[in-house]
Amino acid sequence: SSHTFMPLMCFTLLFGVVSGTQVTPPHSTIRPGFPVPVNTHSPEVRRAARFGVYRYNNSSNDLFLFKESQIKQAMVQIVRGLKYMLHVEIKRTVCHKRDHPSLDSCHFQKEKNLQQMLRCYFEVWITPWTHKVRIPVAHCH
Q1: Which residues of the chain have pLDDT under 70?
Q2: Which domain covers residue 101, as residue numbers?
Q3: Where is the secretion signal located (predicted)?
Q4: Domain-located, residue 105
């Protein structure tokens, strides 16, 4: 559904560091191709995690949508864009998948028998100058 890709328009604003195909590393000590830890609370990391969640929701058979509850660990690698490697906990929300609501307005399940938490590993590859997002890896258990 089209709502999944709406946040793409934000990338040019978010990644002001990008010019052409050059991505300026956050610290001069970071070499391209070398993964480094990043703050799990940063807007960029949270946005990348949300893309992983979209990917999970699109492929799950659950009646309800899941949403990220905690980003446990985040790394970023500069490789023809920004590749995020994320360990994320996601939980079942009260929103039905068929209704396509915004995940921001979806609250977590309060009913004990409907609550579920999964641990996920997402790889989210963002090339800001082409407005492309790829999620080559999304494993949840």
Answers
A1: 1-32
A2: 34-140
A3: 1-20
A4: yes
